[in-house]
Amino acid sequence: MKKKKILMAVAGALLVAGTVGTSAFAEPSGTPTYRQLSGVGSDTTQDVMNGLSQVVTINGTKVIGSYNAVGGATITTKDPAVNNKCTMNRPNGSGAGRTALLNSLQAGDNCLDFARSSSLSLGAANPGLTYVPFAVDGVSYAITPSSVLPRKLTLNDLKAIYHCDPAFVGNGPNFNLTVLLPQAGSGTRSFWESTVGITDADVVAGVYPCIKDTKSGAPVQEHDGRVLDDKSIVPFSIAQYIAQSSQTVADVRGRAILGSIDGKASTTLNSDFGVKRDVYNVIPTSKIGTAPWSTVFAGSNSLICQQTGVINTYGFAANPNCGDTSKQTP
Q: Are residues 58 and 36 in the same domain?
């Protein structure tokens, strides 16, 4: 009963706090239209960054311009009257966001200033990048209420499923279970692959034939439960599920429900869930000590790290290492 009351209180707080930001902020909302810090990338963190863009200000002016992973085909990140080079194809996902940031930095066009990432990728980059954590997310598996899979699985069960174990998925070519991954370049995809012990190269090569990242010819967009039927499974951000269920952001869960892993319910606070990850804003390493990057992102007292309430509103737990700048690419 005590736990039920706590969960009800959390849900109520999320509903109230949801007035801070909504899915209407698909692109920078309000003035100025174009911001000092323009960023693209992760679907997982796009909504919380949209919410933060509404409250993080310097001298009363909004400075974060966060562009969603999906929407119109192109985005314009800087005022064309000042910089007419900044209309680009919309990057979808952590990997695409990092690539777009690097391309902008290498071109010296000043079109992008940061990238959103729900995974850590410290491979060599030129120029160097720094992954600045700001929140903690949990990731579970999503199924339908009438799924052939149970609502309680162990991590070992999930590893077996994503290795196409016949005991769970049946035998090809007609598998009893469709094992889904989000679109290529998704941070949730790469995080989940590492969690269940598979590589993206093997997925792409067809080593695991039960795994699909498309449905009806379209890529599986992360955190969109409408892709599920009773014979499928897909990883799902707990933060996104919470924010969607509280109507803080657009609800695209469909019939999706989250399962528990190793006895841990996915309705618990993300910091207590067994499968969890830091989420990041990626900035040029050369800008760590330069405003407005230093003011907004870097250090435990940065403007983003001061907004724990907004971060919680979008279903994320506070990160004890918020603002840390030690994770840098070589």
A: yes
- State how many domains the chain has: 2
User: Same domain for 260 and 321?
Assistant: no
Average pLDDT value for residue range 242-267:
94
Q: Residue 166 is part of a domain; what is its CATH number?
A: 3.40.190.10
pTM of the model: 0.88
Residues 140, 265: one domain?
yes
251 & 288 share domain: no
pLDDT at 59: 97
Instruction: Work out the average pLDDT over 302-310.
Output: 98
So what's the pLDDT on residue 269? 65
Q: Specify whether 268 is located in the same domain as 296.
A: no
Q: Find the domain containing 306 and state its range.
A: 2-134+281-328
Same domain for 30 and 155, yes or no, is no
pLDDT value, residue 270: 62
| Tokens standing for residue 84 | 């007419």
CA distance 14 to 315: 8
pLDDT attached to residue 115: 98
Final residue in a domain of this structure, among 233, 254, 272: 272
